[in-house]
Write a structure and sequence with these properties.
Blueprint: H1 3-73, H2 79-96, H3 100-113, H4 121-135, H5 140-153, H6 155-161, H7 163-181, H8 185-195, H9 198-201, H10 206-216, H11 222-243, H12 257-268, H13 274-284, H14 287-297, H15 300-311, H16 317-325, H17 329-372, H18 374-445, H19 447-467, H20 469-476, H21 480-497, H22 512-524, H23 534-546, H24 560-570, H25 593-604
Helix pairs in contact: 1-2, 1-3, 1-17, 1-18, 2-3, 2-4, 2-17, 3-4, 3-5, 4-5, 4-7, 4-16, 5-8, 6-7, 7-10, 7-16, 8-11, 10-11, 10-15, 11-13, 11-14, 13-14, 17-18
């Protein structure tokens, strides 16, 4: 390559690489700026989200309480009653470890079921229901429905006593019945739901109804107990006519259950047989009534005692005692933390709600603008998409740079690995060369090698002597030392002639002058053959007999392309010669002795 071309290539490389370096640097700067921007956006966004979540988490108790209170407020409850309700709910949750929001939600159901609650009555009803639910292992919604049912059944009694005092007595009496008869609040609610106001309409008190239903639940469910009691009440009028007995007083109110059972015992005894059971079923009209009578007649004294005990219950102290015994202190701690946050942040929640409401109003205004001016919404949408798209472009650029860096690292690793492999191959080559030299040195250091070499040289000398025997004999026949050598050679030839198939004749009939004449004649005819001694003829015949593949016609000639290549390379290039001064060729990995020998052979060829 000329110096001008080399300088031109260098200049081109400089002109190309410098702009590329600038472009690469600019891309890296852009990618770095994009990554930094995305990092800042992510951290900033995460910070905002975390701050919002922290504020929301802190305000959540107050927000939840505000939501539930708002639902109750929708029923027309005054603000004063709502404040009392919220305070009662927090106190209840801290005392029994129950949910304050569930307490307020229960007040919504109570207010819906019981009309006319005012002042503190809503709080009293809700607290009594919550305490009874905790005491009887029932959920708040079930007991809330139960209180609504009981109020519907004993509305007159509640009005006479006062709703707040009445509901506390219902709570205490129900808790005592659950404890006495080993039932649950759910079962008692089912029992009163089944019986309805049938017993109350004929003058049966709450304590007696609870005692009867509780006693029946020893062998049946609450709903089944209510169904049997309802069947009995429905057949009383017919039964007293059929049996000729009186089960009502002068005002038409039903006599106490114990008195009715005593009358039946006086007629049938302490037990009722099959015929008597059929008579009672006919009188009351149903088997359910007969079944209830049989169960209650088995222990009339116990029934009377239960009715008296329930009648003595005042307030809900029993329910509070039972609920306190089943309170979980860890639940109290959790409820206390909720109550603290609800109370603290509830004080500032109205101001925060005002700010949030203003923000929502602002969003509403923007929404109205977009509806009134559609082009505004379109512009805002395009701006948002453009911002997001720019972020996507920067992200794609960062991705491409990352892929390029990864590929560069992989290429560097690959080239490093190949370099290591080549170094290992070079080491192996050097090791093999050294081993070859060591083998050659060891071979020539072996005496047998010298013996074989000496024999070879001796054979070569004998062959040469045989080949030039006539000339030697003509030239040195008169010298004493040649006589000795001629004797030795002739003796050696005689030894060789002893080998089967070997017949060497030193006394050739042709003289050198004759051989020269034959050679000239053969050359004229184009069939020149080199002079051949008798020994060579014998050797060639022997070799031909022993190794036919070594005959001239069977020997492999080198390819013509190789011969042409060698011939062409050896021709002198006389034309188009250019000089560039001194040229230095530096072989990167050197040349081995074998390669040098091969080079010499090719040059000779």
């Amino acid at each position: 390559m000329s110096m001008e071309k080399l300088l031109m290539q260098v200049a081109l490389i400089d002109q190309v690489t410098k702009p590329l370096q600038g472009i690469t640097k600019q891309m890296q700067t852009t990618a770095e700026a994009g990554r930094q921007g995305m990092t800042n956006m992510a951290s900033g966004g995460a910070g905002l989200v975390a701050t919002g979540l922290a504020i929301q988490n802190a305000l959540m108790p107050a927000i939840e309480m505000d939501r539930k209170v708002g639902e109750v407020k929708s029923l027309g409850v005054t603000d004063e009653a709502l404040k009392q309700l919220q305070a009662t709910a927090l106190d209840f949750s801290v005392e029994y470890g129950k949910s304050a929001t569930d307490f307020v939600n229960a007040s919504y159901d109570i207010q819906s079921a019981i009309a006319g609650l005012d002042g503190n009555e809503l709080s009293q009803f809700t607290k009594a229901s919550g305490v009874l639910a905790a005491a009887t292992k029932a959920d708040t919604s079930t007991i809330t429905n139960y209180m609504g049912t009981m109020y519907g059944i004993f509305k007159n009694q509640a009005t006479e006593m006062g709703k707040g005092e009445w509901v506390e007595q219902v709570s205490g009496m129900t808790a005592s019945a659950v404890q006495m008869f080993k039932t649950t609040g759910n079962e008692m609610s089912s029992a009163f739901t089944s019986i309805g106001a049938e017993a109350t309409s004929v003058g049966v008190g709450m304590n007696e109804q609870m005692a009867i239903l509780g006693t029946l639940q020893a062998t049946m469910s609450g709903s089944e107990a209510g169904t049997k009691y309802r069947s009995f009440l429905g057949g009383v009028a017919k039964a007293q006519s059929e049996l000729g007995m009186s089960f009502t007083d002068a005002q038409g109110q039903l006599l106490p259950m114990v008195n009715i059972l005593e009358q039946l015992k006086g007629r049938y005894g302490d037990t009722i047989d099959v015929a008597e059971s059929a008579e009672l079923a006919k009188a009351f009209g149903t088997k359910e009534a007969t079944g209830m009578i049989k169960l209650l007649m088995a222990d009339t004294d116990g029934l009377a005692q239960s009715i008296e005990s329930l009648g003595q219950v005042q307030g809900m102290s029993k329910a509070e005692e039972m609920a306190g015994a089943m309170t979980d202190q860890w639940e109290r701690l959790q409820a206390s933390w909720f109550a603290v946050r609800a109370a603290v942040f509830g004080a500032i929640l109205p101001s925060i709600n005002a700010v949030v409401g203003s923000m929502a109003d602002g969003m509403l205004v923007i929404t109205g603008w977009t509806q009134e001016f559609p082009i505004l919404g379109e512009i805002l949408g395009y701006v948002a998409i453009a911002g997001i798209s720019l972020g996507g472009v920067v992200a794609a650029l960062s991705l491409a740079m990352g892929i390029g860096q990864m590929m560069s690292a992989g290429w560097a690793l690959t080239m490093g690995t190949l370099n290591g492999v080549f170094k290992m191959l070079r080491i192996n080559t050097l090791a093999m060369t050294a081993a070859t030299w060591l083998f050659n040195a060891a071979l020539w250091a072996n005496p047998m090698t010298w013996i074989v070499a000496g024999i070879g040289l001796l054979i070569a000398g004998v062959a040469a002597a045989i080949y030039w025997w006539d000339d030697l004999k003509a030239s040195f026949a008169d010298t004493n030392w040649f006589s000795v050598i001629a004797w030795a050679i002739e003796g050696l030839v005689d030894l060789l002639n002893m080998i089967p198939g070997v017949d060497i004749d030193l006394n050739a009939s042709d003289t050198p002058e004759m051989n020269v004449a034959k050679q000239a004649e053969t050359a004229k005819q184009g069939e020149f053959t080199p002079p051949e001694s008798t020994f060579a003829k014998v050797a060639n015949e022997e070799l031909t007999q022993v190794s036919p593949y070594k005959q001239p016609q069977n020997m492999t000639a080198p390819p013509k392309a190789m011969i042409q290549n060698l011939t062409t390379n050896n021709k002198a290039q006389a034309s188009n010669v250019r000089q560039y001064g001194d040229v230095y060729i530096t072989a990167p990995n050197g040349i081995t002795p074998d390669q040098l020998a091969e080079w010499d052979e090719l040059n000779v060829g």
